[in-house]
Amino acid sequence: xxxxxxxxxxxxxxSALLCPASLFAGNKGGKRTVIAxxxxxxxxxxEYYAAGDVYxxxxxxxxxxxxxxxxxxxxxxxxxxxLDLKWIxxxxxxxxxxxxxxxxxxxxxxxxxxxxxxxxxxxxxGKQTQSVxxxxxxxxxxxxxxxxxxxxxxxxxxxxxxxxYDPSGTDAIYKVWANGKYKxxxxxxxxxxxNGILAVDKKLIVVSFGSGEVFSINASGKKTAMPKPAKGGLxxxxxxxxxxxxxxxxxxxxxxxxxxxxxxxxxxxxxxxPADLGFDTKRNRVLVPLFKQNKLVFLSL
Length: 301
Prior knowledge:
Blueprint: H1 7-18, E1 32-35, E2 43-49, E3 54-59, E4 72-76, E5 82-89, E6 100-106, E7 109-114, E8 117-122, E9 128-133, E10 140-145, E11 150-155, E12 158-161, E13 164-167, E14 172-177, E15 182-187, E16 194-200, E17 203-208, E18 214-217, E19 223-225, E20 234-239, E21 245-249, E22 254-258, E23 264-268, E24 278-280, E25 285-290, E26 295-300
Antiparallel strand pairs: 1-26, 2-3, 3-4, 4-5, 6-7, 7-8, 8-9, 10-11, 11-14, 12-13, 14-15, 16-17, 17-18, 18-19, 20-21, 21-22, 22-23, 24-25, 25-26
């Protein structure tokens, strides 16, 4: 924003940007609320913390592959009011947080994927309890609660390249426990850069950013293909109570619905780089961070 603008104009613009009632007109899907201009810096994931009735947003804040310790977690009200931009801040000497991506809550702990580490924080305080380095990983990304005191995380198998990102060959899925222990669950460099993940009925459902695949992995490690959407760049993954899956797609700039009859439809379109999805169970609302726009979108179901 031009620093030479008069204060009254600046105030007016900021007020408009902060307004959570901004709506996109003419887009497919129900009512959407856009939160912009609050200071997000490459928001990658958002999680609804039901006990506090707040949204927690991970911000990479720079290079997604750089260990710069400047990532942060924002706290936002369901009305769209910014409560604390840097509630958890990598710049704090007591915190390790470089380029936070997926976030998940399990048993009053917040788990955050971060390069080759999983950072663990106590809730509601936000105090860090563990920084778990997973040897052999390169780009920990998606995350979901498991059946016990652990989470599953995906390694998208990426490293820095001459023109952005190159495959690292570390594509994998891990279990990570609150006490800092971890275990390799599945490793296969043909997974196509696995990203979003869910634990459903003793199976893992995974979507891939590189290949645009959707597949399941059972307890025996058998991988089974599921219907593939028209376009890829698949990132976030949710399951609704009726058994349908929601999948965010950078290639389609949309949120896909994988219906129970294995067909695909679109919940909402015209979403630039929709990343890891969250869901507000109290308000039946999908939470979509726009990675490239520094915005958060609420989609009412």
